[in-house]
Amino acid sequence: MHLRVRKIFSLIFCISGFGLPVFRSSSSEGEIEIAGPTRHSLVSEIAVTDAKESIWIAWRIQRDFGWHTYWLHPGDVGVAPSVEWILPEGVTAGSLLFPVPKRVKMGQIGAHGHHDETLFLCELTFSDSCKLDNGLIIEAKVAWLACSKTCLPGYANLSLTIPVGGQTKLDGRWKEKFDDFRNKLPIEPPSEWHLKAYQKGDKFQLVLPDLGPSFSGLYFFSEGRIVRSNAMQPVRFKNGNWELEMTRSSWSPENLTRLRGLLYRKSGWGLDPNCKFYKLDVPLQKFDQ
Hints:
9% of the residues lie in helices and 45% in strands.
């Protein structure tokens, strides 16, 4: 997937007649790659690793004001960032963990992405036979699409070396940011919630319990290209429940059986101000059932 994205971006460069300039500058977090409106680097919450316990690293993206990159599920437009890891023998990378999304616009088209600065976390694990005599050398080939009123694809090679010692030591500068990322991750909704989802023609209806007089600030970030991100999602109270209506995307499969994604509430869920996303996986029924 990563190589295919890079080939597509390279083709766009050739057609447009220009590419994004990539500059390098030294940094304690690893080399920073400056590419147009974005800056990229690898960081770690670990200052020293014992190469035994798993550790977390991150791809850091900083964006100029007015620019965004895309979430794992971009919506109607966009391409998700991707990474290809190059690691020493015996070191394995897990899946790239995306930050929670925001609503963004490419021109006038609504989509799902990220502004400002974000981290994309990845867990590294070590085999028993892993030998790192020269430290843990991490390399990554990354690709992204940055958009504002126009779009600029780009890719870069990133690197980070973490010293290996007898005991793992945390990097206080980054530990707080990694913890902030984890605290904002989506959680499961309350067990007493009895959610239902219906499909009627080109509309989906997500039925939610009555949790109070105001349910404003709701938005469903759909997995895949199931729900149109450039369409309104009206909310109404009906038969003692709240109903969130969404428009089906023309890219969605014909025989959908489940509605998956993140349910966002601007004011948050419960007492935790960081808890603004519930992770949903709801069976999808035909409207006449």
